[in-house]
Amino acid sequence: MKAPLSLAAVFDRLLAAYGAQSWWPADSAFEVMIGAVLTQNTAWVNVEKALGRLRETVAFEADAIVALAPDVLAAAIRPAGYFNVKARRLQAFCAWLQAQGGIEGLAGRPTAALRTDMLAVHGVGPETADDMLLYALERPVFVVDAYTRRAFSRLGRISGDESYEEIRALFEEELPARTDLFKEYHALIVTHGKEVCRPRPRCEACCLRHDCQHGMGG
Predict the structure, then answer these.
(1) CB–CB of 135/174 below 8 Å?
(2) How many Å is the maximal CA-CA distance in the chain?
(3) Cis peptide before 24 (omega within 30 of 0)
(4) Is residue 25 a contact partner of residue 44, using CB atoms and an 8 Å limit?
(5) Residue 78 carries which DSSP code?
(6) Count of CB atoms within 10 A of residue 92's CB?
(7) Using the 8-state DSSP alphabet, how is residue 158 labeled?
(8) The whole model's pTM is what?
(9) Which domains does the chain have, with CATH numbers?
(10) What is the pLDDT along the chain (218 residues), one digit of tens a residue?
């Protein structure tokens, strides 16, 4: 059996196959953060609908979202699903952001300490925090999601049952700590997971198939 591909080699293959993805699809750092909460357990198309309705309902600012009646906020973000839960999470996050002095207040804080504080906010888990850190705050942290776990377990780079932090550490230790690289890599993994490396994979269309333990090369 071949040795598993390096993470750098996988990136090069994915980039050649799909081209630059240029994520995150948002107009501001604050929109990235709100979107990171809303996108939990739903597709981005639903998040876009929820963001549009939210903008129609209230000023798109942390203090306005905190002041909104919970039922009104829940109704506005209904397209994102789990709207009552996400309304509470959004208000908790926005209240925390206010207390930090807004996005400007986060700028000078060390990444590790900031990540720890984010994870203490109601409803903010590791993937959500890392989405915010990478895409909104330009910090070189790698975002791990279900697509990452599935693809790289099939490639033999992980067993698949590692913790989130173990997988994140693998990427951050093996790759250069570059925000642009981490953004592009995560986006490519998502595209690959949606188009090819599905629960029932389309191995015949995979740019990694000859080096994949699950596919034709395994």
Answers:
(1) no
(2) 59
(3) yes
(4) yes
(5) G
(6) 16
(7) -
(8) 0.94
(9) 7-22+143-211 (1.10.1670.10), 29-136 (1.10.340.30)
(10) 678 999 999 999 999 999 999 888 788 999 999 999 999 999 999 999 999 999 999 999 999 999 999 999 999 999 999 999 999 999 999 999 999 999 999 998 999 999 999 999 999 999 999 999 999 999 999 999 999 999 999 999 999 999 999 999 999 999 999 999 999 999 999 999 999 999 999 999 999 999 998 875 44
